Amino acid sequence: MDNHTAYIEMVGITKTFGKVIANHDINLQVEKGEIHALLGENGAGKSTLMNMLSGIYTPDSGEIYLEGKKVSFNSPKDSIDAGIGMVHQHFKVIEVMTAAENVLLGQKGGILFKKEEKKKIAEISERYHLQVELDKVVNDMSVGEKQNLEILKVLYRGEKILILDEPTAVLTPQETEKLFQIMRRMKENGCAVLFISHKMNEVMEITDRVTVLRKGTTIKTLNTKETNPQELTELMVGHKMDLSIERVEQERGDLALKVSDLTVVANDGHQKLKNVAFELYFGEILGVAGIAGSGQKELCEAIAGLQEVKSGEIMFKGENLAKLTPRKIIELGIHMSFVPEDRLGMGLVAGMDMVDNLLLKKYQKQKGLFLDKKPAIEQAQKITDELEIVTPGISNYPVKNLSGGNIQKVLLGRELDLSPEVLVTAYPVRGLDINTCHKIYDLLNESKKDMVAVLFINEDLDVLIDLCDRIMVLSNGEVIDVVDAHNITKEEIGLMMLGKRVKGGDSVVSNN
Amino acid sequence: MDWWIGFLSAAVVAGTPLLFASLGGILSERVGNQNLGIEGMMLMGAVSGFIVAVKTSSPILAMLAAALAGLAGAFIYGVLAITFRTNQVVSGLTLTMFGTGLASFLGKPYVSMMTPQAIKSFFASRPIPILGDIPFIGPIFFKQDIFIYFGYALVIVLGFYIYKTRQGLNMRAVGQNPAAADAASINVTLYKYVHVLLGGALCGLGGAYLSLVYVPSWQENITAGLGWIAVALIIFATWNPYKAVFGSYLFGGLTILGFRLQGAGIHINQYLVDMTPYVVTILVLILVSQGHSVKNAPPKSLGLPYFREER
Amino acid sequence: MVIRLFQIIKRSEITTLKKTINMLIAIFLALVTVAIFLAILGYNPLSVYASMLDGAFGSNYRIKQTIVNTIPLVITSLGILIAFKMKFWNIGAEGQILIGGFCGGYFAYNFAYWPKPILLLVMLIAGFIGGGLWGLLAGYLKTRWHASEAITTLMMNYIALKWIVYLQFGPWKDPNAFGYPTMSRFAENAIFPKLFGVHIGWIIALVLVVAVHIFMTRTKKGFEIAVIGESENTGRYAGINIKRTMLLAIFLSGALCGLSGIIQASAVNNILSSTLANGLGYTAIITTWLAHLNAPLTLVVCFLFAVLTQGGSFIQTAMGIPSSVATVLQAMILFFVLGSELFNNYKIVRKNKQQKEVK
After folding, report:
1. I want to staple A86 with a disulfide (CB 3.0 to 4.6 A). Which of A54, A193, A262, C29 is the partner?
2. Domain A8-237's class?
């Protein structure tokens, strides 16, 4: 390797945000015509590193070389000019514009459209089998289409290096397979593809080499063929770890929630939920699978009383939740925790400290006009100890300054501490490291043992299959089926997420 | 009929400061920067234009001075709201306070002074051949002063720019989603500054129309709240320069309605009629706020600062 | 390739002391900037500033005037504070002051024969409720139809102003003013008494500072208002009745502004006129923001601004410099303080030199 110059070389990269060291002395080499995985837990610094390669962040120190030449990226423009394109986890597209307009963003030239350009865009999307309708407004696109559009943007600019940040997180298994084909085609054309992931099986399937990151540092680069998932896991987590998730097998209890004919219409007139019907029992975990935006959010909000229901019932102990105020629903013992993409959008008040955030669900039971902070302070101490929350203080320290994992612990800890009867939790492990994920799965299992009825919405199908008793699949606001998690495969769920009913599935369980 | 022609052509005149100011506001808001300093920038433009007019008797220099003054005001706002990421509402209001104070301070020696004759004759009505002879339309739109014709041209240029050019596309992208625009190699800060500053210049010109042509003399607080109507007009026009023309002349008409009705011998209380533009603004705002159409929605990043390394 | 020498990066928390120092530096820089501006215009900035201080503190009378200037600013700022805490951009204090003055004035003009304590109390209540309802209207438009409150409150300022002008030129015109469009002076019965040489508004202002502070930091409603301000979604999620809480806060906000209006009309102007608010509502927005939406701090900031206003009107008579220099100075201070807040959250660093070289 002495005389060899790598296509991309990042040397000694360090980046800090305030007190947080996101990257420390990271080294990375990528070759032409390879698919190179960056493997690491959430928070290991993968995205930060790639954001520096794409010019969004500027490193505090360290150097980047392209084909042996030192480069310095002060803006995404510099990086794009150097031939690097990135598809971000949260797509960077303009929702109100058409696909073609999005492709042309930032391009040189005066007049908006010329015929040849549209033709060129169409050609490229054909060559790579990217399914994008050029005149469709992004708003109306599915997640998969948006991702194709992002890739099309990169290809149109003729970039030679493609960075994909957790591209499969939002895709069905089938869509993932299509994406892999596109990646292979790019590789054949001599491009370098950087693939960020924390999913072992995908890394094993598609990549040539893997670089493992842990806690902001480079651990090792290996040839994919010469390693195995066990080794990679150990490198990634830092110690031997059993990644399997335990399912508590127990008899479920009585009927908790009975949802029937639930229909929700959004402000723009779109039906977000269509005649949704299902049952949730005490002492079980019912998983919800579906492509992002299939109605998960509306379902959570309808149960919590935050979403206006057009028709249908949500029965709990003889009361129809659809007709109650959020306050009344909380009093009944139904608690919802929804972790949105930005983590703070719902449930926590970003600018307030932990005590005030805990107070949020307590103060209404207090008598009189004035606030009593004492119980919240005690609870804050208790939760901090029990869930090992790392914080400089429970008062006068806004929760938005905590790390993502700690924020979620506060959120979930608060809901669980209220000893709910029904717990609705959406994406509770979003962006967490593996240890914390498992802690949260344990918490859910604990609740189940305490005969809490748990509705668990998650993106990761493997987790749903391992942890839940039953899985309900939503597609486009409709319940496709409710299946037994014990004998269903990821691929079958994937098909259902696309709206296809799987024959011979255990759809009978839904009628129990 | 004559009353109508008279009223409508006066409405175009009264609407012209609004047109310039609302076009300026549209430019600024299209890149995500709500600037409540329009009133202040108009006053800065009005006073600078007037002083230069008195000192030089040159209409071109006066307009240039007004544009530069508005631009300077927008620059203060830009540094705060774009580079320093301050709250846009407060920064804009402060700019209005600043502009009001400054105009009152600088204009003190000029109070009640008239605009020089050379300026007045430059901005006298100049009918456009042929177009000016069209019945009804002609006298309303094409027997006006140069400043007004400049306004027409501006609308066409801006409309073309925003909807038909790459730069216009980029600018809209910045206002919708600066992070996405940034990732597409658009220089977000540059785009924001250019449009906020141009917007300020247009507001300055709008103010100058008052002191140079409409009034035409210097009075304390000459804008009398027109800047705030312009802020509302931006919403009324749903950030579209073509609709801004219609809105400006409509509101221009409303502001002079009370006075005109008196003249026509219709006895409705002038002060109550003077409320109509404000009441109508509120009604229109309610109507616009009801729409769920994506096309008419405000730029998504409106009011939010952008910091690339935020996380 | 563009080479940037400096870079703005996020910094970790800084202490209150440092924040205060930043603010003082900003105020100092604002004073320097205006001084340069004055010097360019041929004035001696030091003597202008000295003269302003003299105007604000030079005699017993002037100190009292400064306090009189502080009172309406404080009460109005407190009103704005409540709305801003909820991120309801109430730009309508100006109109709420006028309507408060109008509602209180109605009793002052029509029921001057009532016993003084009762009349004054009714006037206060009327001003309070009037301003509150005027604010509530904008709140209703917001909660019912999502109409942007910044615009509606602004428009309502002008509607209120035109209304008062209408009264002044029409139905409430003083028939004994020789045709001059003015309303008549308040009867002695309708004028607030003085205590220690300053009208009792100062007591009301101090009581309100304490009351608003307790309300915002210690009560459940205050907590709810703060939660809604941070995130409406979270508020709904926690079971807060958003609409009701919003409307209550907006009512209180407008009510305090209205209260300030009637106190000013009665105790200071002794008359209702269209110049009652005269920019006070806008200045109060700025003082509220400078005080970081903190009630006790409002008192300090408003006093500082009153000093500038009082000093400004003094130099107009003493030195012939337009009093608007005070407005310019106030705006300049806010510009600099706003700018300085960047340094509370971010720091600017010089880029590492080696990094810029391109091989």
Report:
1. A54
2. alpha beta
